[in-house]
Design a protein that fits this description.
alpha+beta; Alpha-Beta Plaits; 2 domains; 4-stranded antiparallel β-sheet; elongated
Length: 206
Amino acid sequence: MATIVTNPPETKLNQPAPAGARLFGMLAEFETPGDLMAAAEKVRDAGYKRWDCHTPFAVHGLDGAMGIQRTWLPIFVFFAGATGTIAAFILQAFTNSWSLTTWAGVWVTGYPFLISGKPAMSLPAFIPVMFELTILFSALACVKLMFLFNGLPQLYHPLFKSNRFRRATNDRFFISIEARDPKFLPKKTEEFLRSLDPIAVEAVEE
């Protein structure tokens, strides 16, 4: 038995928005990664700030074409790991200390155990816990900051309303420019996107 595969219906271009509808931005569709790269460079050079590229797979060199700066995430993760290292050392030094009479002005008594004449403040013995907390703090910071920087979780996005955008996970490449961009003007932005020779351009509502 043959199976008939149909493409999703496409939205009508230049369809006027209903009264009271807020415009999210403009969406341009491209056929190949090369077309997208060339268009992204022109959007970058035009000075737009609130825009993005959407592809079904990673496109090498797209970050440079978009002018994306290097992320600060590794720096934050490094400091999170250093915090874990310091926290582990303080924890073990605190619990193994004889007494700390001047620590924050509070009398602190630790749990000293004399084992084979080893000192209570034994840095080599502290290394495993310091290593584990370094990894733990780094991993947690990396995951949480990655979600934060990417604006996740995001269960809804206006682009999901576009039937054309369904192919962004299949075989099409898109550029979206948001209406909140300082340079965004509906008519001029549409004309600019059409000058990039896309397959189609459409307005996307909120």
